[in-house]
Amino acid sequence: MSDLGHVLVLAGGLSYEREVSLRSGRRVSEVLRAAGVDVETRDTDAGLVPSVLADPPDAVFVTLHGGSGEDGAIRSVLELLELPYVGAGPDACRVAFDKPTAKSVVRSVGLRTPDSVTLPKETFHDLGASAVLTRIVERLGLPLFVKPARGGSALGASMVRTAEDLPASMVGCFAYGDTALIERYIDGVEVSVSVVDLGDGPIALPPVEIVADGGAYDYAARYTAGRTEFFAPARLSPETIAACEATAVIAHTALGLRDISRTDLIVDASGECHFLEVNVAPGMTETSLFPMAVESAGRDFGSLCRGLLTVAANRG
User: Fold this and answer.
1) 277 assigned to a ligand binding site
2) Which of 21, 24, 153, 296 is labelled catalytic?
């Protein structure tokens, strides 16, 4: 194993998820320091490149959410600087970050994912919103779930129970992105499955079941303590838990991810798992699902983060 010197935690950025990223970065930095790692935490500003060129870290832990943190951009810069980092490479990030593309990839390897329509804002306006939305309801039925094709933390996402609610949901979605993903809503148990790879291949951590206050796991429910109840491991049969774990590992592998990922699923009444989306930079806050899964697996969060940095340093 590499004897880690100092490491860099990247947090902040300029996406809508900046505040969550800062919280994730603080949490990772704290547990790494507790694990005996010399940690520097930095934002992605004009001083970043000169700083790392002057004193290159042994490895970088990326806790940037949304935007350049997950679309491959910052990872491309890290590769230009020849800095090893935790997480997937730029190409895999670009595929995973775009939800319609990720759905196509996982569907091609046999995973279930809700039927959907991807609609850019320009098409929505140019073809006449009313006619297009009417056809979407006829095609997919109700209820529906609308969310930006790129992005996270449920920003711009909403459930649509009636056709009359769809236009407002589309407007809310377009406030956070230029393309909307409209999915058939699958009623069931919402679970999240984290995947880690410390060098021996990807393994799934115990699924975390999500029960949001009011039924909607929105931004407030995700990051406000007490707004959501979590069960780790999920209250599912052993067979269903195994299926969820297998689904997450298959998605992680099919999308070309590495080190860590988090896959969001819905388990329907028959026990079938439906892929919703994957996150290449899972939240690391006090209310985030990845640390919950680590604890449920009986692992120490700080030791795991240190192990991921060691794998990255060895790879670099």
Assistant:
1) yes
2) 153
pTM, whole model, 2 decimals?
0.92
Extended beta strands in the chain, E state: 6-10, 38-42, 60-62, 85-86, 116-120, 144-148, 158-160, 179-184, 189-196, 203-204, 208-212, 228-231, 260-267, 273-279
Known binder of ligand: residue 264? yes
Q: Would you place residue 218 in the very low, low, confident or very high pLDDT band (cuts 50, 70, 90)?
A: low
Which residue among the candidates 68, 116, 288, 296 is catalytic per the annotation?
A: 288
Q: Of the listed 17, 183, 209, 245, which one is catalytic?
A: 17
Please give the structure tokens belonging to residue 57: 């870290």
pLDDT of residue 184: 97
Q: From CA 316, how far away is CA 310, in angstroms rounded?
A: 10
DSSP label of 150: B
The C-alpha atoms of residue 57 and residue 75 are separated, in whole angstroms, by 15
- Specify the pairing of strand 179-184 against strand 208-212: unpaired
Instruction: Judge whether 165 is annotated as a binding position.
Output: no
229 counts as catalytic: no
User: Helix and strand tally (H, E) in the chain?
Assistant: 13, 14
pLDDT digits (tens, 9 = 90+) for 225-284: 667 899 999 999 999 999 999 999 999 999 999 999 999 999 999 999 999 999 999 999
**DSSP reduced 3-state for 300:** coil
Q: Work out whether strand 208-212 and strand 189-196 pair parallel, antiparallel, or are unpaired.
A: antiparallel
Q: What is the mean pLDDT of the chain?
A: 92
Indicate if 153 belongs to the active site. yes
End-to-end Cα distance, the chain: 13
Structure tokens belonging to residue 211: 């029960």
108 in active site = no
Question: Which tokens go with 246?
Answer: 């297998």
